[in-house]
Design goal:
4-stranded antiparallel beta sheet; binds magnesium ion; globular; binds adenosine-5'-triphosphate; Rossmann fold; binds iron/sulfur cluster; alpha/beta; 346 residues; 8-stranded mixed beta sheet; 26% strand; 2 domains
Length: 346
């Protein structure tokens, strides 16, 4: 039996932003925010993008959402190249692909009651007859875990978690297939995060949703995602099913991210020599030569300074962009070493 066709395919995506300077605002450089990113998501699955701040996660999300035009590469949704869609098909795509962002307070209109916020897309896209909209809003609030009376509240009358539920209900109002969650739970307290994650998982099971889930908290991403890609400076460093990525990370950057998560067992922390991972993430306007990770890499060799490694399969579904996978694995499994990312968020 052949594998099901992916719902979303991102192929060799590049996104550059021009740097303009001087009185005439001439182009003086390029920020290469995304440099050759490829991945695909099967229908009904959750795919995670992780990496330090500025590595290009939101830029990938905005390209998928058609909020910016890629500099190169293709985004294929349900078999169709988005660059080739006519107006009617693009309108369908915009309905089927919805987003939930980090800060619901800034994405929800503060002057509108929640009921109107949720009803607006139903009304604009004529998804229900006018007489049925109120009941539809109540249904959407209910599946997002809020009583119908929330329709009469303004965003400032709710907690952060409740506002994020309204953001999710508004996304669901369009009957989406794919939801792009860009740091959707990052601003919430840990216990509220868990509730929203549970809601997202429940909705995924019941509605068959597909997620592109962006986050910097590895334990959250691991929990919700089937597959994960680790990004560094606009590129995918490593991608694998979640469990494999966490049990057998093979790229030194993935290893450093995992090592930076505190081990809940204090005994396991004893006797580990902490080797700080040198420096901060370089600027995407001036990326290092060769492997872009080489200035910070604990196992870099001469070759890494000159030649950029491609993302290559090291096992079925597991790919890594590194020349020295065996040295990296050896270092990672040595119980006396630990690398700590400097400047990492978590
Ligand atoms: N509109 C823009 N114009 C110029 N540069 C931009 C623009 N948007 C993003 N960038 C730059 O592109 C790079 C990638 O940014 P992006 O927001 O995609 O990162 P991110 O991984 O989402 O980071 P964070 O975790 O902080 O949200 C950064 O260097 C950022 O400064
Ligand atoms: S290619 Fe070299 S510099 Fe890059 S991650 Fe691998 S060992 Fe480190
Ligand atoms: Mg971002």
């Amino acid at each position: 039996m052949s594998a099901p066709a992916p719902l979303l395919q991102v192929q060799d995506l590049h996104v550059n932003f021009e740097i303009r300077s001087g009185l005439l605002q001439r182009v003086s450089g390029l920020i290469r925010a995304v440099s050759g990113v490829s991945f695909e998501i099967e229908r009904g699955k959750a795919f995670g993008l992780v990496g330090e701040s500025g590595c290009g996660k939101s830029t990938v999300a905005r390209a998928v959402l058609q909020l910016l035009e890629p500099s190169a590469g293709q985004i294929i949704y349900d078999g169709q190249d988005l660059a080739q869609l006519d107006k009617a098909d693009m309108a369908q795509f915009r309905r089927k692909v919805q987003a939930v962002f980090q800060d619901p307070y800034s994405s929800l209109n503060p002057r509108m009651k929640a009921g109107y916020i949720i009803a607006e897309p139903i009304h604009v896209h004529a998804l229900k007859p006018p007489g049925e909209i109120k009941a539809e809003v109540a249904r959407l609030l209910d599946i997002c875990g809020l009583p119908a009376r929330f329709a009469d509240l303004y965003p400032h009358e709710m907690s952060g978690g409740q506002r994020q539920r309204i953001g999710i209900a508004r996304a669901l109002a369009m009957g989406p297939e794919l939801i792009v969650c860009d740091e959707a739970v990052s601003a919430l307290d840990v216990s509220i995060q868990a509730q929203i994650i549970n809601l997202l998982e429940e909705l995924q099971r019941e509605l068959g949703l597909t997620y592109l889930f962006i986050g910097h908290d590895l334990s959250v991403v691991r929990h919700i995602c089937d597959d994960v890609a680790v990004m560094y400076l606009g590129r995918i460093a490593e991608t694998a099913p979640s469990d494999t990525l966490f049990s057998d990370p093979s790229h030194p950057y993935t290893q450093a991210l995992i090592e930076a998560v505190p081990n809940p067992d204090p005994d396991a922390e004893v006797n580990r020599i902490i080797e700080p991972l040198a420096g901060e993430v370089p600027s995407p306007a001036n990326p290092p030569s060769g492997c872009v990770f080489h200035p910070r890499c604990p196992v870099a060799t001469e070759r890494c300074h000159h030649e950029e490694p491609a993302l290559e399969a090291i096992a079925p579904d597991h790919a890594t962009a590194c020349w020295n996978v065996s040295a990296a694995r050896k270092r990672f499994t040595d119980p006396t070493t630990k690398t700590v990312l400097q400047g990492a968020e978590k």
